[in-house]
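[09:14] KT: can someone run the structure on this one? pasting the chain below
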Amino acid sequence: MTGDDMPDRRAILFFTPEWNGMHPGAWRLRSSDADGAMDFAVVSRLVRAAEAAKFHGFFLADPLGFRLHISPAALARTATAVRYEPFTLMAALSQCTEHIGLLMTAQTSYDEPYHVARRFASLDHLSKGRAGWNVVTAGDPSGSVLFGRPRHLGHSERYRRGAEFVEAVTALWDTWDDDAFEMDKESGRYFDTSKLHIATKTGEYVHAAGPLNVPRPVQGYPVLAQAGSSPSGRDFAARYAEVIFTLQPDIDHARDFGTKVRQAATRHGRDGAHLKILPSLTLVVAESDAAADARFAELDALVDDRLGLELLGGFLDADLSGCHPDDPVPDVAETAGSQTVQGFFLAKARRDNLTIRELIGFMLRWGAIGGSPTTIADHIEEWIRAGACDGFNVTFADLPDSMNLFVAEVIPELQRRNIFHHDYEGATLRDNLGLPRPVNQFQAVRR
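[09:31] RB: done, C-alpha cells below
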C-alpha cells in the first residue's frame, strides 16, 4: 500500500476522549484512572500527549446532563455521571497547551447566540486561535427537562433554529473589524467607531443583537464543526460546517457521503474542498491482533446485562426493560432524537437478524477496530489512500493503554508512510486544517 504511484494524502487526526475509554467497562480496568473525568491532571496529561503526537485537534463532546434514559442503578455501573463543564475545561486546557486545536460542543436548542458567541470568541483569544465549535442541535429529549422547557423541539425545528443560531453567532463575531482597536494613548482613542457593527438577527426562533463585547476572534470565526448525518444534518453541515464528524461503516459509504455533502456545499455557494470529513474511529491497540481481541473480550465481560439493555435502549430511543437479552430486537418507532444513530442500529439488527444480546455486543464495539500497531496503521492508510475521508476522529476503547501504544507506535508508522504530518504547520487551528479565514460579512457589504 506504500507504492510510489499512490496519491500523497495526509490524515487529519482529532482525539476525542471518554476519560477512561469509550467502552463502558473500561473504567474498571486496573490501568484506568477511575476518577479521570474529574481529575484535571489526568485530563491535561492525555491532551498534552495528543499534542506531543501532533494530533490536529482535541474534540470534547458534551452530554448536557445525566443520561436520563438510564436508571440510577444502571448509571451507577458507568463512569459517565459527572464531567467538567466544557467551556471551563477548554479555557484551562488553553493555558497548558500551545498547538492542538480545542474544539467543543455547544448546542443551539437550550442556549442563546450571544452567550455562545462571547464564550467562543473568548476561547479563541485565550488559545491564540485554536478554538472550534461543534454545532449540536440537542437531540436528547431529556434536555427539555433540564432547562424547564415544556417540550423538546422536533427534528426539523431543531435544525431551523440551529441555522438561525449559527447565523446570529457569526454576525456577532463580526461585530468588530480585525483592526478596530487602535489603543492610541496619544490621541486617546481606543477603537475606531467606523469599525464597529451592530449585528441584529431576528428569525422564527432566534432574536439576537450586538455589539459583542469581545474583539473579533483570532481566526475570524472559530472552526465550525457538525456531527449529523441525517438528511437535515447533512444539509446543515453543507451550509455551515468546515469539519464534519460522521459515522461510516466502510470506504464505499464514506466516499459516497463525502461526494454528496460536498456537492450540497457547492449548491449552497461554498467550496466543497473546504470541508474536512472525519469519520469516527474507535480503537483498541495492542501488541498483536490476538491481544486486541482479548482486550475486547475483557472489556465486554465488565458490562452487566442490565446496563447493556439500558445503553442499547438509549441508542434506539426505546424502553427495553421488559425484554430479555436473547429476544429478537423489537420494532421501534422513529423518534425526534438522533435519527441517524437509531436508524443505523435498527438497520444492522434487521439486516443480520440479531438478538438484543447480539446487538448489545455490536453496540459495545460500535465502529471500533482492534489490532496491532501495523494493523491500525494499515486501516488508516487504506481509507486515506482511497480518498474515503480527510482523516479520523479517534477515540480509544480503553484509556490510557491503547492511546499510549498508538502514540508510541502507530503515529511514527503513519509518518514513515507519509500519511501523517511531522509537525504543526501553522499557528491556528484553521492554519493546521488548511481552512481559509472568513471575511467579515459587514466589511464585505461595505466594499
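[09:33] KT: thanks! Confidence is low (pLDDT under 50) at residues 1-6.
[09:34] RB: yep, looked fine to me
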